[in-house]
Amino acid sequence: MLHRKTLAEMAKELKAKKVSSEELTRTFLERIERHNPRLNAFITVLKEQALTEARGADKRLAAGEGGTLTGLPIAHKDIFCTAGVKTTCASRMLENFVAPYDATVVARLKQAGTVLLGKTNMDEFAMGSSNETSYFGPVKNPWDETRVPGGSSGGSAAAVAARLAPAATGTDTGGSIRQPAALVGLTGLKPTYGRVSRYGIVAFASSLDQAGFITYTAEDNAMLMQAVSGFDEKDSTSLDKPVPDYVAALDQPVKGLRIGVPKEFFDKGLDPKVAEAVQAAIGVYRKLGAEVKDVSLPNFWLSVPTYYVVAPAECSANLARFDGVRFGYRCKDPVDLTDLYMRSRGEGFGAEVKRRIMTGTYVLSSGYYDAYYLKAQKTRSLIRRDFLEAFKQVDVIMGPTAPSTAFGLGEKADDPVTMYLNDIYANGVNLAGLPGLSIPAGFANGLPVGLQLIGNYFDEARLLAMGHQYQRETDWHVRVPKNYE
Amino acid sequence: MSLTPDDVKAIARLARLSIAEQDIPAYAKNLSNILEFVAQLDKVDTAAVQPMAHPLDMSQRLREDAVTEQVDRERYQQNAPETEAGLYLVPKVVE
C-alpha cells in the first residue's frame, strides 16, 4: 500500500532505507498505466526519465546525501515549463512545444531531488473550472467518473486523489488549485501573490497567477512549499521576504485564534449540504479552542464580475505572444501575415480561450477602457479593503471553497457565466492577492466538500498549521475513492 | 450590453482570431452574457476609490542592465514553425 502513504511518511521510509525511490516511482508509474486511460489526468508520462531520476536519488540517499524531498515522486501541471519535455498548456497551440528551460518551481523541486512522473492535464491555458476545456479531453473525477474534477488544475487533482501521484503542482489564478482540491477531497494551497516565482509558468493573468500544490495533507503541502517559496530575481513580481519554516510551524495550536465567518459566504447559491459540512468543520476549530465570529465582506458580490474584467484583459495581452511565428501552432498555407496570425490563433485556441481573449480585447479597446478595466481595478480595491478590515478583527477567514460538490461532465459547459460562478468564493482571494487553503471537510451527496481558509498576506504558515491541526482531529483527508484504494 | 454579429467580427479582428461564420452567433450570445454580467460593476460608486495596481502596493523592481545569459537561438528555434538560416519565416510582407 505504498501509494496510500503521505509524502512525509514516504520521506521517512526513504531515509530509513525501508523503501527506495525506484520502488515508489514504479508503484506510481504502474498506477498511472492502469488508471490513467480512464481518468485522463496526465498529458505526458515520463516513465524512463522518472526511473533514471529515481535511481539517481537512491544513489544520493545511499551515500547519506539528499534532503527531505530527495526521491519523492511528484507531477507537474502542464503549464510549468520543463526543460526538454513537452509543455502544452492543454492547448493545440502548444501541442508540440518543448520547453527550452525549467520554470523556477520546476528547477527548485529538481534541485531538491524530487522525481518527475509526468505532466498533468488542465483546462486550456488554465481557463476553466471543470477541466473540460482541455484540447486533450476532459479529466474525470475519481470519486464519480461522470463528474468533473474541477479546474483548471483538474489533472493534478484527479491524479493525486486517485493516488497516481502523491502530490502535484497547480496554479491558481481564480481558484484553480483550491476548487479542484475541494472537488476531489484534497489539500490545496494558493500562496500570497509574490510568494512563489511565476518564472516559466505560461502566463494567464499576471496580476493574479500563483503556483502551489495539491497534496493529501497540509504537512505534505508545507514540505513542498518550503522548497519553492522565496525570492526569484527572474520574476519581477517575486517578493523578497524571508520564508518561515512551514513544517516546524505545523504544531502551532489553534487555541485562542480568532476565526471570521463572512455571512455573505452562506447566502443563496450555496448548496445547503455543503454549508452544513462547512459549519461542522468550523465547529471542530471551535472545539480546539478557536473563537469564531461573524465578519462581513460587503463587496464580496463584486468579485466574480471584477475578475471577469481583470483576468480576460490580462489574458488577451499575455496570449498575444502566440502568433504562429516563433513557437506554437501555425495554420496551413497562410496567404499573408494577417491571415497567418488570424488562422493560427483561431485554429490553435479552443472556444473558452477565444471567448476570454475577445472579452479582454473588448474591455481594453479604445473608448471602453475606463468603463471596464479602470472600473474593475477600483472595485478590486474595495474587495481588498473588505478583507483587510476583516483581518483587523480576526486571524483567519473561513467558509466554503466551492458552492457545490463536483458537478456532471457537460452540465455547465454551454453557459460560461454559470461556470464562472463556481469560483465565487475563490476569485476575491486572487484579486486581493491573499493566501487561501482548501482542506477536505467531509462529504455532501457522497462527494467531497472543501473548507476554505483565507489568511492575511504571507500567513501561509498559519493556514498550513490550521489545516494540519484539523487533520489531526479528522480523517477526511485519508479517504480514497473506492476504485483507487 | 448586447453585441451584434458585426461587433463580434470587429473584436475578433482586433484580437487576430479567425472565427468561423457559423460560430459567430454563439460567440455574440456568450460574450453579451459575460458583458451583461460584469455590468453589475456599474452599480457601485467608485468616484473616490483608487484603482488597485498591486495587492501589496509594490512598485516595479528594477535590475542592473547586465548580460546574464546568452540566447541559444538554435535551441529556441526548434520550436518555431518555419526558420531558415537562423531567421523566422513569415509570408511576404513587403512587395
Describe this structure in words.
In chain A, 38% of the residues lie in helices and 13% in strands. In chain A, helix 8 links the parallel strand 7 (258-262) and strand 8 (291-295). Chain A is built from 15 helices and eleven strands. Chain A is globular. The longest helix of chain A is centred in the C-terminal third of the chain and has 22 residues, at 369-390. Chain A has 485 residues and is an alpha/beta fold. Chain A has an eight-stranded mixed sheet, sandwiched between helices. Chain A has a three-stranded mixed sheet with strand order 1-3-2. Chain A starts with 6 loop residues before the first helix and ends in a 12-residue tail after the last helix. Chain B has a domain at 5-42: Histone, subunit A (Orthogonal Bundle), CATH 1.10.20. Chain B is 32% helix and 4% strand. Chain B contains three helices and two strands, in the order H-H-H-E-E. Chain B has helices at residues 5-14, 24-38, 73-77; strands spanning 83-84, 87-88. The longest helix of chain B is centred in the N-terminal third of the chain and has 15 residues, at 24-38. The two termini of chain B are 42 Å apart. The mean pLDDT of chain B is 93. At the A-B interface, helix 9, helix 10, helix 11, helix 12 and helix 13 of A face helix 1 and helix 2 of B.
Name a few traits of the molecule:
heterodimer, A: alpha/beta, 15 helices, B: 95 residues, mainly alpha, Histone, subunit A, 2 strands, 32% helix, 4% strand
The end-to-end distance of chain A, rounded to whole angstroms, is 9 Å
Strand order of the largest sheet of chain A: 4-6-5-10-11-9-7-8
The structural class of chain B is: mainly alpha
SS-based class of chain A:
alpha/beta
